[in-house]
Amino acid sequence: MSGLSGFLSQNAIKVENEKYVISERFVDDKGNPIPWEIRSLSEEENEAIRKSCVKKVRNKGVVSQETDYDLYLAKFAVESVVFPNLKDAELQKSYGVLGAEKLLKKMLTGGEYALLLKKAQDINGFDSDMEDLVEEVKN
Asked: Which InterPro entries match (predicted)?
């Protein structure tokens, strides 16, 4: 296959979902850690997430736009997770929260959350660390 045909949608190699143990605290009935399934996002999805995190800020009468980076990273992580279903009402209710972003921050420790972000970053092709990802979002 050469030329333009290699770029056709049906010929593109699909990025496979990957499974990772994000936390040793979530185990199956045999005591084995349950892996999380993480997927790659399209740039179209990533752009929609970025745009949803932009807020208008008024400072001395001047209105500018600012990105909420913590919200961006939370939404990025949520949209990358296939399993567990973070949008499941029963799962959210069990942690006493409403919303997938709040659920994720409630159910994971700081280190686990950082690991999830790293794995989501890896499968999405970001070779740099999360600080570089945040810098990319700023631009």
From this structure: XkdN-like (IPR014986)
